[in-house]
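Re: the request from the purification team.
They wanted to know what the chain is likely to look like in 3D before they choose a buffer screen. I agreed to run a prediction and write the result into the notebook, where they can find it.
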Amino acid sequence: MRKLWSVLRQSMKMSVQNIKSNKMRTFLTTLGIIIGVTAVIALITIVNGVIDYVMGEFSSLGAGTLNVTVSGSPLKSGLSEQELAEIEDLDNVAGISPSVDSTSTASRNGNYLDTVAVQGRSDYYFAEGDLIAHGRALTKIDIEQETYVCVIDSDLAESLFPGEDPVGSELTVGGGRYTVVGILGEDDNLMSSMSAANSNADGTVIIPYTNAMKLSGNSRVRSLTVYVADTDQTDALQDELDQLLASDFNGDEDCYSIFSMDSLLDTMNEMMSIMTYMLAGIASIALLVGGIGIMNMMLVSVTERTKEIGLRKAMGATPERIQMQFLLEAVILSLIGGLVGVVLGLVISFAAAYLLGTPFVLSISAVALGVGFSAAVGILFGWTPARKASRLNPIDALRSE
C-alpha cells in the first residue's frame, strides 16, 4: 500500500512538472474545459434563480387557492349566500372571498374620477397577505352589516386626497358615501391588478362584496376564491367542490369552472426543469469539445516524449506506471479547467442575478456536475493517449527521431 502511494505521488509530481513546462499549451488545452464548466455553472445557477423568482411571483397570485368562475345558466346566474356558506363549510376550506368587480365613478370635494375599479371582497381576502400599508382592512362585521367603508390604492389616494392622509375621510363611490379605512400597499394583490377592470382605471377601491353586489345590481356571486387549509389536499378539495357545484347546477359542468394555481405551478415547474436540463446539455457540448482538446494535446505529448517513455521503460518502468502518469496529466488538466470554470461560473451567475434582480441560488448539484464532468472528461479522453504511451516498445521508442 505504501509502495503504491509512493508510485502515485511520484507520477503526480512528474505530471505537474510536465504541465508547468508547457504553460501556453496547458492554458489553451484547458480553455475548452473552462468555457464548458463556466457555461454549465452559470446557466444552471441563473436559470434556477429566475425559476425561483418566477415561481415566487406566481405563488403570490394564489398558490393554495381554488378560483371558481360561474358562467351560469338561463335559470341560475350565480351562487347564493346559502351556497357560499356550503362551500365555506367544506373540509379543508380555510375561508372564501367572493369577488364582485365593476367600474364606477368616485368623487370628493368636487374632484371626479370617471373610471374607478370597484372590487367587492370579503374579510378573508386580506387575511392571507400583508396588503394594507396604512390603516386597517375590511372586517367580518363590515361584510355582514354592509358597512360603508373602503380600502383604496395609492393612485386613488393621490388623485382625491393630494397631500392628505385619506384614512378617516369620506369619498363618494357610485352614489354611496364611503369612509376610507385603509390604503393598499404598492404590491397589492397581483391577481387583482391583472384584472380587466383595472387595466384603464383611475384607481382601485375595495368595498364589502355585499355592497358591491348592490352597486352592480347583482344578487348572486359569479366569482370567488377558495383558500385551502392544507395544500397537500388541494386535489381532494377540488373534487368535493366540483361535486357541490355540479349539484347546485343540476350536473351542468358548463355552468362553472374551477382553476387551481397549484396545478399551473406544477406544470411550470416541470417545464422549467426540462429547460434547465436542455441548457445544461447544450453547455456540456463545450465540455466535450474541451475533452477532445485534451486528448489531442496528450497524443501530441506522447509523440513528443517518445524517447522519454522508451528510456523510462528501459530503466524498469512498467506499462501501468506510464499509463498512470499520462492519465493523471489528463485528469489534472481537466480539474484545473473545472475549478477555474466553477469560480468564473459563480461570479458570472452572481453578476447576472444582481443585474436581473433575481435571487442568487447556489446550486451544489451544478458545482458537483461541473467538477465531476470535468474529471470524467479527463479520464475518458486521457485514457487513449495514456494507453498508447504504455504500449510503446522501448527499443522502437529509443530509436525514434
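For the purification team: The two ends are 38 Å apart (CA to CA).
Please add any questions underneath this entry.
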